[in-house]
Amino acid sequence: MQEQLIIFDTTLRDGEQSPGASMTKEEKVRIAWQLERMGVDVIEAGFPAASNGDFEAVRAVAESVKESVVCGLARAIESDIRRAGEALKNTGPARIHTFIATSPIHMKNKLRMSPQQVIDQAVKAINWASQYTDDIEFSPEDAGRSEIDFLCKILEKVIDAGAKTLNIPDTVGYTMPEQFGKLIHTLRERIPNSDKAVFSVHCHNDLGLAVANSLSAVINGARQIECTINGLGERAGNASLEEVVMAVRTRQDYFTCDTKIDTKHIVPASKLVSGITGFPVQPNKAIVGANAFAHESGIHQDGVLKHRETYEIMRAEDVGWGANKLLLGKHSGRNAFRSRLKELGIELESEEMLNNTFMRFKELADKKHEIFDEDLHALVSDEVLILQERYRLLSLTIHCETGEIPYARLVISDDGNEMQAESDGSGPVDATFRAIEKLLTSGTQLQLFSVNNITSGTDAQGEVTVRLQKSDRIVNGHGADTDIVVASAKAYLSALNKLHTKLERAHPQV
Ligand code: KIV
Ligand code: ZN
């Protein structure tokens, strides 16, 4: 009988700390639904003390998710913990995750606290959290660079105070797999009350070792892994959920535990997160990259055709490749459309939104024969943006001809006022962006422009991400359309709309 390995997904919290990956409340709820459908045990939905928006998003996720435990992050300070407690109050199963740094470098330079003060603060934090829930997780931040004696001491105290999960973070991605595994082993052995808590790990990928470190910890008794879809997260990201889950599932001969993840939902989750955040998945990314199951060399193809296991250790369909096959087409009615959205966890706020999205679905179905789940997500994202945003694209005319200078003319609405501009450029997208800038003179710098096809085929919608920077703010805008120049214009305007929204949001670790 295999033990259970708890999957704690932090895409909505640590994942959101990637520059430009911030998500709206509605986007978080959609991702949370997908995580719940996949069987994720704990969903860390955000950091409620960061801003009112984060508070509302955590609350909305906690109200809409029923099966998974929903978790809110809080520094080990009273106001943060109360905010997390309030966000999760009277919802489903809830966890408060509180943390304080324990490495000499963090205690001395960041916290300016003595080790004893850090212990006292951690114990107080557990006591505040226990006024809201019994399900309390504690993390000694930067554990990978903390002193083992001090770690043992503080962890023993927080278990006594009521922490049920001890999460050991390799905050800066510094440790080596063997070393990290040993750390978990030593902690479990030396802390007298260690059997009263579940050991968890949270590894960052600065040296590309987050998954290896997490798995090494599992071999040494960790029974919760914190991870994110597509490995999203602060800097180089966190351990990727899909890699951790599939490593353990594929090597059941090696591990003595397994997760309860329904792996067929992995690829749809990856696409959803990539679409919402605008962080494309590299083609050679394990499990969810477009080439992860593609055999290019003749010898490999021949081998796979003769006997699949010659070159394949997993089956593409088991992780959800091909799971989104044609579901709706241009003859589908409003009810089929509505119920598919419901199955995808999408609830539009009003009938008007549903009608508008359905109209745009019909337009898309005229251009594109097969509509996939990813197309529906893109349509809904667009609809939500259209209703909330200041700048909207009304029309775009492009002229491109071999030997001629490309030219764009566009009409946009600025809070309902129509404005138009034209420009030439080195290509149609360049001309379009120049025309927008003529109108809005945003003072931003373009940091990233990327185009991905949402589904396959030349009739697929192109999904464009535009990353803009203005002073110290970085935002990602997205747009989708079967015409990639139109998608680019929408993405550029969406980024400007985000810049326009004032964002005052604290970072948990600063
Ligand atoms: O990386 C880290 O240490 C964290 C903690 C808040 C767990 O994200
Ligand atoms: Zn982290």
TrEMBL record:
Sequence positions that bind Mn(2+): 14, 202, 204, 238
Protein name per UniProt: 2-isopropylmalate synthase
Positions of the UniProt region annotated as Regulatory domain: 392-510
Any one GO molecular function term: 2-isopropylmalate synthase activity
Cited NCBIfam families: leuA_bact, PRK00915.1-3, PRK00915.1-4
Task performed by this protein: Catalyzes the condensation of the acetyl group of acetyl-CoA with 3-methyl-2-oxobutanoate (2-ketoisovalerate) to form 3-carboxy-3-hydroxy-4-methylpentanoate (2-isopropylmalate).
Obligatory cofactor(s): Mn(2+)
Entry similarity comment: Belongs to the alpha-IPM synthase/homocitrate synthase family. LeuA type 1 subfamily.
Pathway assigned in UniProt: Amino-acid biosynthesis; L-leucine biosynthesis; L-leucine from 3-methyl-2-oxobutanoate: step 1/4
UniProtKB keywords: Amino-acid biosynthesis, Branched-chain amino acid biosynthesis, Cytoplasm, Leucine biosynthesis, Manganese, Metal-binding, Transferase
Cited Pfam families: HCS_D2 (PF22617), HMGL-like (PF00682), LeuA_dimer (PF08502)
Species in which this protein is naturally found: Nitrosomonas aestuarii
Segments forming domain Pyruvate carboxyltransferase: 5-267
SUPFAM superfamilies: 2-isopropylmalate synthase LeuA, allosteric (dimerisation) domain, Aldolase
Enzyme class of the recorded protein, top EC level: transferase
Enzyme Commission designation: 2.3.3.13
